[in-house]
Amino acid sequence: MEQNQNENREKLIACAKQEFLEKGFAKASLRKISGDAGLTTGAVYFFFHDKEGLFGAIVDEPLSRIMQVLQTHFAEDAEEDLRSYQHQNGDHDAFAEQLITAMYADYDALIILLHHAGGSRYEGITERMIDMLDAYYKQLAARYAALFTGKRVNRYMLHWFSHVQINAFVHLLEHEPDSEKALEKIKPVMDCLIEGWVKYILEDDRPAG
Amino acid sequence: MEQNQNENREKLIACAKQEFLEKGFAKASLRKISGDAGLTTGAVYFFFHDKEGLFGAIVDEPLSRIMQVLQTHFAEDAEEDLRSYQHQNGDHDAFAEQLITAMYADYDALIILLHHAGGSRYEGITERMIDMLDAYYKQLAARYAALFTGKRVNRYMLHWFSHVQINAFVHLLEHEPDSEKALEKIKPVMDCLIEGWVKYILEDDRPAG
Amino acid sequence: MEQNQNENREKLIACAKQEFLEKGFAKASLRKISGDAGLTTGAVYFFFHDKEGLFGAIVDEPLSRIMQVLQTHFAEDAEEDLRSYQHQNGDHDAFAEQLITAMYADYDALIILLHHAGGSRYEGITERMIDMLDAYYKQLAARYAALFTGKRVNRYMLHWFSHVQINAFVHLLEHEPDSEKALEKIKPVMDCLIEGWVKYILEDDRPAG
Amino acid sequence: MEQNQNENREKLIACAKQEFLEKGFAKASLRKISGDAGLTTGAVYFFFHDKEGLFGAIVDEPLSRIMQVLQTHFAEDAEEDLRSYQHQNGDHDAFAEQLITAMYADYDALIILLHHAGGSRYEGITERMIDMLDAYYKQLAARYAALFTGKRVNRYMLHWFSHVQINAFVHLLEHEPDSEKALEKIKPVMDCLIEGWVKYILEDDRPAG
DNA sequence: GATGAATGAGTGTTCATTCAT
DNA sequence: AATGAATGAACACTCATTCAT
């Protein structure tokens, strides 16, 4: 009865998505989920071991798809010519497109991961992504600063740009459910951020007060 | 024993801050809070009527201080000369300073309000602030667009800027506990945002695809 | 400040009547009562010692007024000529009038006593009255039975008549708030009951199955 | 272990009957009930969903048995020849027998329903039955009044007879636990009530003062 | 004469989890 | 593969009552 097994597994996942969207991880009720699926809580424990396992079954794949895109981007980008950073629109566009594709592949799951993970092990995932981006930018910015004398990296601005960049995509996801329109909308945002990054990431190299 | 009365009330508030910071509104336990304060749950109900009342006792004053600053800012700003918007640094600095002062007056309370209000009536307060700012920017941007022909407001960018601006302060609060340093750090952020706003808030007035 | 004392005492009693009427003794809240009176629970304890004391302050006087009427009636009636029991309308009318006057002197209090005493020491007061009446009728019926041969008292009917008679007045109180109209309405009820009593209180004196 | 399942369910119901009899619905403690049954409160929620569900499990079936008898009686009786109403003893006896059978099928449950339902959705069930009977008698009495000139229905007496009739059975249940003896005891009561109804339900058709 | 503070025991209810079957 | 039964700990909240002041 392989079909039946998967059917019930999928039914549980579908109902769980609904419930997690409505109540968030912590307040979601396994009884409600399994009841909606025509099953009992025991079924959840059979398929997913526990509540977090069920959450992971929804959220793990979308998450790793995104992590993949980010890491690939970091690897490629490392070799860029920084003097023309801002003008390599093609690269940035390709990155944005890949990220958006990854994000919109399972829309609900990503909304759940980013906004309804409170209480689960995935809580704070956005911050962890920001930290990854921050680490990458730190090294990029160091190379950038080396091109100028009398300039140094503004650590706070660096982190803030990572924050804003990640959240630009999160914000997009929330406000534009259609992935093609999302791609259009993110363009000026990306342009604005790149321009800002280039201009504001460095500060005069005077001793801090 | 007036002292004693206030002592216990304040003790409850102090322990509640701790608990709300750790667990958030929804998962915070009144028994833990009152136990930590050396009292019983009944004491909470005597002083604050219920869980939300206790939360409000922590969070209401900081919140209204901030609302005050925002509304004052909106009122003043309405008369600005838009042609020199970007260069009126004094105004923006004053606004930032007032806002930061308001925000840092009760640091923990604001962190709780912004990040640990889930389940309370204050949930989504950041979004409500963004909507306020968005409404204000909408009208400002309309006046701005009227100065140019062939340009119109990009609604998405407008909302995104509101989002980023509010979150710039939230981000600051999270990452810089010292209010004076916070004021230094927010400056380039504000500059960057104003420059971006002026440049990216309008788009070419072609019919949308 | 004697005036003030009594004022507050009366205010408490008035608010307590309201609350007992709405919720009954058990579910009534002293906090609600004293709050409505502009006082605190402590005031209740000062004036009435405890919740039952407050209830008693409302209910004791009306109760003893009624007890008085009943006992007087029992005493007088003991000497009646049973052969003309049914036709002494004047006596029955006078009794009904006295009882109704006593009952309607503090309408709300009596409603509370009879219908909202659950949980208090007064719970089952109606049954206690019925038992009093039953005891009286028992002796009356014995004398009545002695007038006939081959007849004996039907104990069950005897008790049932006591029950119905008491409840006739309770029913009246519930359904007719005006004491004059009540007196009119009770007349045919009394006639019917007396007629029934005379006819059904005795049964043939055969050994019971 | 089907036995075990039902065993615990039945044990809960048995202990609940005890507790409801002693304390009434409102003051009964689920913890006491489940404790007495050797279980935890959760078991109550598994079997009965909530406190009212447990109460309903005890009381619903007896109640509907009685409602059935009443409604059947109303339907049949509607065609009676009113001129001989009083003398159709067979009909009244059959009705009384059916009602008593229904009432005594689950003695404790009915006592609980009639006397210990305060706070539950069944509170006031006796009054609702009286109103049903009253509605039925209203139409019966109208047909009866049409047989006489110069007579009209006394609304108060009509309602009072409904009240007394229903309470005759309630009283019986309270005072006679044996159903066969109950049937004997109710007979003179029924006779008395029918005789009274016929004689006192109409009054002279003079304008009311 | 009355308050304000606080208690302690209690309430119904919810939940993730376990486990024999 | 999944159920049905049951747990145990937790929860917010209510209440009559006490008592120093």
Features:
homotetramer, 209 residues, Arc Repressor Mutant, subunit A, DNA-binding
Q: Could you explain how this protein is built, in words?
A:
Four copies of one chain form a homotetramer. With 209 residues, chain A is an all-alpha fold. Chain A has two domains: 1-49, Homeodomain-like (Arc Repressor Mutant, subunit A), CATH 1.10.10.60; 60-204. Chain A is 75% helix and 3% strand. A two-stranded antiparallel ribbon of chain A has the order 1-2. In chain A, α4 packs across α6 (107-115). The longest helix of chain A has 27 residues, at 51-77. The first copy, chain A, starts with a helix and ends in a 5-residue tail after the last strand. The model of chain A has no long low-confidence stretch (mean pLDDT 90). Chain A binds chain B through residues 24, 26-27, 118-119, 154, 156-157, 159-160, 163-164, 167-168, 171, 175-176, 185, 188-189, 191-192, 195-196, 199-200, 203, 209, and chain B through 24, 26-27, 118-119, 154, 156-157, 159-160, 163-164, 167-168, 171, 175-176, 184-185, 188-189, 191-192, 195-196, 199-200, 203. Chain A binds a DNA duplex (21 and 21 nucleotides) through residues 1, 4-5, 8, 29-31, 39-47, 50-51.
Shape of chain A: elongated
The biggest beta sheet of chain A reads:
2 strands, antiparallel
| Count of separate structural domains of chain A | 2
Mean pLDDT of chain A: 90
In sequence order, what are the helices and strands of chain A, one letter per element? HHHHHHHEHHE
- Helix content percent band of chain A: over 70%
**Largest sheet, spatial ordering of strands of chain A:** 1-2
Oligomer, anyone? homotetramer
Number-wise, the strands of chain A total 2
What distance separates the N and C termini of chain A? 71 Å
Low-confidence stretches of chain A: none
Q: Compute the gyration radius of chain A: what is it?
A: 21 Å
Specify the structural class of chain A: mainly alpha
SS strand fraction of chain A: under 5%
Instruction: State the helix count of chain A.
Output: 9
Most extensive chain interface and residues per partner: A-B, 28 and 28 residues
